[in-house]
Amino acid sequence: MPLALLALAIGAFGIGTTEFVIMGLLPEVAGDFGVSIPTAGYLVTGYALGVMFGAPLMTVLGTRISRKRMLMLLMGLFIAGNLLSALAPSFGVMLTGRVVASLAHGAFFGIGAVVAAELVAPDKKAGAIALMFTGLTVANVVGVPLGTLVGQSLGWRVTFGIVAVLGVVGLAGIAKLVPDMPRPEGVRLRHELAALKNVQVLLAMAMTVLGFGGVFAAITYIAPMMTHAAGFADGSVTWLLVLFGLGMVGGNLVGGRYADRALMPMLYLSLGALSVVLALFTLTAHNKAAAAVTIVLIGGLGFATVPPLQKRVLDQAHGAPTLASALNIGAFNLGNALAAWLGGLVIAAGLGYTAPNWVGAVLAASALVLAFVSAALERRGTSAAAPATPVTAPATAERRTAVTP
């Protein structure tokens, strides 16, 4: 394993911690600022929207410098945003800090995925991408639960201060371990934008929005759902997030392994099963043991889609992968924002804390439909591009007839 992949995973760990830790601290943040839980959910939505818009913006700004230097600049922005959140005197300022930190997210994972893929052999690209994303998933096993525990015990501001320190560690790791890869010659912004005309790239991004959105429709409101519906104590949310993180780690590694072998079947299986499990979560959320098992499955099935979707975008974007890769990271977070918003709507409408699970099931099922559409279009395109097979049988028969005595 190239040490550069470890450095990318370290950066991903810090980013993953700040992205997901807010979900376990929504009640504390809402109480501190005197806002409702659905309103506090805008901290998830705002971060996700910042990733969506920051991904193309930061990627375009970074086209004139080396990828290593851009990754370091992005980590600096991440550190500044988390410090602002930790010191925020009002909800609006905290939301601003979340958005500032989020601007680094999409471009970091987008550029990082391209770097990871270039460090290994062609048949190991999805595995390398999955290894980088392992930092994100391990954050949910270690960083997020510890951050939630610290936030509930010492205050959520301490949590975001620690996250800023994680950013410093990630910055140091990138500076030391990532090779100074030069900016690719001959690649221009217009080439990167041209990749977005590819229908398969757009379909993969749409699958990302809907499929990953299905996960976050449920997980965004996991703390109030588990305390109100399942009857868990507030302190138990930490361990539930550990279970979610363990599912993420396993799903990410399995998705990376099989995406190099059978990419589309992996998507069919994970998206279909995810839709079913989310629908069942409306029932299992009322039982502690069943809810815990379901949370593991949601994490595993949701993150099993990440390596194949990211690899599909890289494959379909051909020679201009950087912007498409970063935009797909934005698509993951657009799904987060959409799901958090829709989940907040159904809760605010009085449908209960388990209602977002139905939203997630519909979103995941929609992504599965798009996966079948994408595969059908690809088969049709392959068939149309295939050269016509010459009809040789008659000629052969004629030759045989000519030499028959």
From TrEMBL:
List keywords of the entry alphabetically: Cell membrane, Membrane, Transmembrane, Transmembrane helix
An example of a Gene Ontology cellular component annotation for this protein is:
plasma membrane
- Localization annotation: Cell membrane
Gene3D superfamilies, per the entry? MFS general substrate transporter like domains (1.20.1250.20)
| A Pfam match | MFS_1
- GO molecular function, one example? transmembrane transporter activity
Using the record's annotation, list all stretches that form the Major facilitator superfamily (MFS) profile domain: 4-379
Q: Which SUPFAM superfamilies match?
A: MFS general substrate transporter
Major site of localization recorded for this protein: membrane
Q: Which domain of life is it from?
A: Bacteria
- Topological category with respect to the lipid bilayer: Multi-pass membrane protein
- Membrane-spanning residues where? 42-61, 73-93, 99-121, 128-150, 156-178, 199-224, 236-254, 266-283, 289-309, 330-352, 358-377
What name has this protein been given in UniProt?
A: Transmembrane efflux protein (MFS)
